[in-house]
Amino acid sequence: MVTATVQPRHPVGNLKIRHPVKAEVRDFSFFYANGFQALKNIQLPVAEKKTTALIGPSGCGKSTLLRSFNRMHDLYSHNRYEGQIILHPEGINLIGPDLEPIEIRMRCSMVFQKPNPFPKSIYENVAYGLRVRGIRDKSLIEARVESALRGAALWEEVKDRLHASGQSLSGGQQQRLCIARALATEPEILLFDEPTAALDPISTSRIEDLITELEKTVTILIVTHNMHQAARISDYTAFMYLGELIEFDETDRIFTNPSSRMTEQYVTGRFG
Amino acid sequence: MSQLPQNAPLRDTESLRRQIAARKRFDLLFGWLGLLLISGALLVLFLLGINLVIDGWGPLWQRHEVKADKSAFGLREVAGTLRRREDQWLLQLDRLIVLADPAVLAPLDGQRVDLVGRLPRGTKKEIETESIAPAGERPAGTLSGVLRSVSTKDEAGKPVTRYEIEPDPLLVDLSGTDQTALQEGRRYAFTVKGRPSEGKVVATEVVPLKTRSFFTSYPSRFPEEAGILSAWVGTLLIMLVTMVLAVPLGVAAGIYLEEYAPRNRLTAIIEVNIANLAGVPSIIWGLMALGLFVYILNFGRSILTAGMTLGLLVLPIVIIATREAIRSIPQTIREAAIGLGATKWQTIRYHILPYSLSGILTGAIIALSRAIGETAPLVTIGALTFIAFLPPPPVEYRVSAEDRAAYESALKTDPNAPAPSPKLHFQPFAWLKSGYTVMPIQLFQWVSRPQKAFHENAAAAGIVLLVMTLGLNGVAIFLRYRLRRSIKW
Fold first, then answer.
1. The pLDDT value given to residue B4
2. Alpha-carbon distance A105 to A74, whole Å?
3. Would you state the pLDDT for residue B321?
């Protein structure tokens, strides 16, 4: 464990990316209700239809950053955002006070660490995002449920029991159900908060394959504890430590030739 | 605990074993102690329950007869079964206890006798005897029949012998009555003219009898005729009002406090106070309700007042149960719904409420089973103890009070004024204003009377109240089981 204090500074590495930018984090800080500053002046580009991984030791603020993308922090009062998260192409600020959080959440869907299907049928789980929007057209919902389940590589396994409880599935299937649920509303960004932390290796590899597949159609931001996972599935990687972005670059560079000594120590498993 | 000797090696198996045995001794002791306490408690509970059931079992099944038109028995009315022999009507009286000097009756035991006396009034089962003689010794008297001695116990439990007569059927002359609706084998109250003689009697009026059970009888000054009709109806209606008030309010308050209210000092104070309110003695609630509902709002000593009082009393229980149920839903479920773009209300309506339903319903039913047994606040706000009527039904077919008054004043001038006809009356909320009694108050009223028979009625009412409460709890357990089955966190 490195105990060196980290001075605020601009991240090391390459903030310019080769791909079109879908979202951009600018001068972003986040304060919890108790006054604790979880994120300090973060700068981060998110490439469109690519996978960006956030890595770093526990408590580094990577989940906090991810949850800011769909304003999950608004659920708890007195949390405070500073700076901007710009969503392209419109250039709207996701954390702007005059922007309706519900609109953000419809455009940036979240998949959580622990599979959390609703205790309802598989069908209803996937249809829920459409239902809250007031869509009542049965055939439309059915079509979207099927395409979402296909998109989450779950259709073949559940097509004969769409009305069984979502909680009757195995852990990995539940997580893919949650991905289907998030996909049903055709979001622009999919946010994954350690989606495989609670899963066995086989389920994990299926989710990873799925993410690689999804990348073709949707921008993905993933928080992971597993550096091999980040190396396998992401195009860009951001290394965070104690609320700061230490380094951001293409994944290959981060894992083979990082600019920061701390990044190197982390990815080689010497701390964290 | 035994101490290891200072210099004992830690791996000395022998001393280690001894030491473990000493430590385990307390486990053994506590296990036995617990078993003893539990079995003792169960035994006491069993004895209490058995005692209640033994006392109350009889009255629970007691039945008595009343005239179908609900009027009291007249002086000359006697109850009996109508029988038919060829083309003659017969009046079969019940077996009667013969009230006479036992010294006179004893030699006649088992013989046919002729008896002179007054027929018992109504459904009374005793006949006061003026004279009694073996059959055939002289012209037949009031009744003839076989006299039998019966061994039984008096009120104090001492064995006594009494004499009963199985009366022969009396030929009954019904020519002065409307015979069209009479049915053979049914029981009627016969208004008899004079005494029967030579086995014949003249009846001037015949009114059908209805059987009433403990559950369908009003309270009465005769313990064998008393029942809990007005009590259980009152309890049911008050529970309805309580439920309608406490459940929506309590659930809404619970949802607000859990999901909407900001976490600040004010809500903290409210939370503490709700917990405190749940512990306020119920008689205090009665006192407050007396001031507010009865005197200021002028709701009277009505079902409405009682229901509102009990509703307030159990409101904190419902709120607390709702909050507990909501709190048991993992935060991740809320985040999942919110994360899909649901509003707070959509999350509550489609997730929070359905998933906490079992807890909420359980809480509501537990609250209800607390309210059902409450006595003190209802005494304070004026529950009556003797109610021989039911609250007016929502729809009633009757002559209105105005029509009746108009008819009575018209009668003064015109004796042939047309009688008013009954009409349908819609009065959906009239019952809320009605006086009432409830099970525990009826029970208390019976216990406070000196006669042992009333104490037995009280025990019977106690059994009914207990069954009602256990039934509610059973429903709560069933609901929790059924609704929880599909949800696992």
1. 55
2. 11
3. 93
Contact A105 B338 (CB under 8 A): yes
List of E strands, chain A: 12-13, 21-31, 37-47, 51-55, 80-87, 92-93, 108-111, 189-193, 219-223, 236-241, 244-250
Asked if residue B374 lies in contact with residue B282, where contact means CB atoms within 8 angstroms, the answer is yes
Q: What token pair was written down for B275?
A: 């917990």
Nearest-5° angle of CA B290, CA B295, CA B296? Answer: 110
Q: Between B334, B340, B487, which is nearest A129 by CB?
A: B340
Q: Which residues of B touch A128 (CB under 8 A)?
A: 337, 340, 342, 350
Tell if the CB–CB gap between A106 and B341 is shorter than 8 Å.
Answer: yes
Q: For the residues of A196-264, what is the DSSP string, one character each?
A: TTTS-HHHHHHHHHHHHHHTTTSEEEEE-S-HHHHHHH-SEEEEEETTEEEEEEEHHHHHHS-SSHHHH
d(C-alpha A64, C-alpha A32), whole Å: 10
For residue B102, how far is the Cα from the chain centroid?
A: 41
The packing angle between helices B229-255 and B353-371, to 10°, is 140
Segment B388-413 mean pLDDT: 84
A1 has pLDDT over 60: no
Mean pLDDT of B144-155: 84
Provide the ipTM.
Answer: 0.86
pTM: 0.81
Interface of B with A in 333-362 (CB under 8 A): 333-343, 346, 350-351, 355
pLDDT above 70 covers what percent of chain B?
97
CA A5 from chain center: how many Å?
A: 28
For A168-215, how does the pLDDT look when each residue is reduced to its tens digit (9 = 90+)? 898 889 999 999 999 888 889 999 999 888 888 888 988 899 899 888
In DSSP terms, B144 is beta-bridged to B114
